[in-house]
Specification:
Number of domains: 2
Shape: globular
Largest sheet: 10 strands, mixed
CATH superfamily of the largest domain: Dihydrodipicolinate Reductase, domain 2
CATH class of the largest domain: Alpha Beta
């Protein structure tokens, strides 16, 4: 199947000041390997690049503002790959790019999306989608003005065991689900080192659209702890889990959010590393708890508590437990938790990237298009606002949020 030429439809993209740049591409045969460029060659970006190479794609260019990241990424790429500090230059100078992979910090997601669309490219964009609900709307409008394929990097959307778990809920096997509990426990012993950075960093380009700050090593080493560059752990892991909650339950973003958090044992950070949140939906409540100071009940899990059965999703798969017989008070005598069914995780890390590659060939929508990315991060953005205002916030019918 021939790879389609990349072009931008419409007369403009609202957030791109310059006129759209359309790069011609030569037709490719069915046996040719798709080519891409990587924007953001840190740990996550390199993971994505390795996955796409495993699936047969070829990197033409690598871009990062930190030279050690580029040096490592080059070692993991074919000979001849080009390196850049400015992704606009990379998109303008390299011919024959089939798609873009963006693995940047959160505050660069909107700019890299805009630049990729202006260049007429499909893009695999890491989550969380945006820095705010308003920015999410803007990004959705940008994509809708084009014919580009955009996949947001929420890989659970392509995990087979989660699709099977969705079938369990849709079948009614759990009965009515009134409460869902999302949890993430990791124990990070992570003092923010103030030692000088090793290698050159273009701090001005790293800051990009963010407020100008003096460079301190902690701001770069753990940028997710600072509001200028991310929504903290709330939007980072919360985008993954709240997307699954809403997808499984067939729900739109929450009506209200009420959240409390704390910064524990990591001096200098701005974003909480432990928190607890309650989301209100029309037909159920959901809680979202993160604790980066314990590994008890390790890693992520989501519990769907139904009147007929409970299902637990975690890194190992899905487990369905029978519900004890209803009783006025207390635990039914002689009853133990009974496993009804187990669905193992197939461990296919590359499935989400493979889905994206399939869609840039077929021009069908991917498993996580941009509107789903916007819905997924809406609740976590509301929770961050709740923490800052120290009160419950509500989503209005027009999508705005009030405290």
């Amino acid at each position: 199947m021939e790879w389609r030429r990349r072009q931008l439809i419409g007369t403009a993209i609202r957030t791109v000041a310059a006129a759209p740049l359309i790069l011609p591409q030569s037709a490719k045969g069915a046996n040719d390997r798709p080519t891409y460029v990587l924007i953001g060659a840190g740990g996550r970006g390199r993971n994505l690049s390795r996955a796409f190479q495993k699936l047969g794609a070829v990197p033409l260019g690598l871009c990062d503002v930190y030279q050690p990241h580029l040096h490592t990424a080059v070692k993991e790429s074919p000979a001849g790959v080009k390196t850049f500090v400015d992704y606009h230059e990379m998109l303008a100078q390299l011919p024959g790019i089939d798609f873009v992979v963006s693995g940047t910090p959160d505050h660069h997601h909107q700019p890299t999306l805009a630049a990729s669309l202006a260049a007429g490219k499909d893009i695999y964009l890491e989550k969380p989608l945006s820095m705010s609900i308003a920015q999410s709307r803007q990004m959705v409008e940008m994509v809708r003005a084009t014919d580009r394929i955009v996949q947001i990097g929420m890989q659970r959307r392509s995990m087979d065991f989660i699709h099977k778990a969705k079938q369990v809920i849709d079948s009614g096997e759990l009965g009515r689900v009134h409460m869902v509990k999302a949890l993430w426990n990791w124990h990070f012993n992570m003092p923010l080192s103030t030692k000088p950075l090793e290698g050159a960093l273009d701090w001005e380009r790293f800051q990009g659209p963010a407020a100008r700050r003096e460079l301190t090593p902690p701001r770069f080493r753990w940028w997710r702890g600072f509001w200028d560059y991310s929504g903290g752990n709330m939007t980072d892991q919360g985008t993954h889990l709240m997307d699954v909650v809403q997808w499984m339950m067939g729900a739109q973003p929450p009506l209200t959010a009420y959240s409390h958090g704390a910064k524990v044992s990591i001096p200098g950070i701005e974003a909480p590393n432990i928190f607890d949140t309650i989301f209100e939906y029309p037909d159920f409540l959901a809680t979202w708890t993160l604790n980066y100071r314990t590994s008890y009940d390790y890693d992520w899990s989501i519990k769907f508590l139904g009147e007929e059965a409970t299902m637990v999703l975690d890194r190992l798969g899905a487990t369905i437990y029978a519900e004890p017989p209803a009783k006025e008070t207390g635990w039914p005598e002689g009853w133990d938790l009974k496993v009804v069914k187990r669905i193992k995780d197939d461990g296919n890390y590359e499935a989400h990237m493979a889905n994206f590659l399939d869609c840039i060939r077929s021009r069908q929508q991917p498993n996580c298009p941009i509107d789903k990315g916007a819905d997924a991060v809406c609740g976590p953005h509301m929770a961050n606002l709740s923490q800052r205002l120290e009160k419950k916030v509500r989503r209005l019918p027009n999508g705005d949020v009030e405290g």
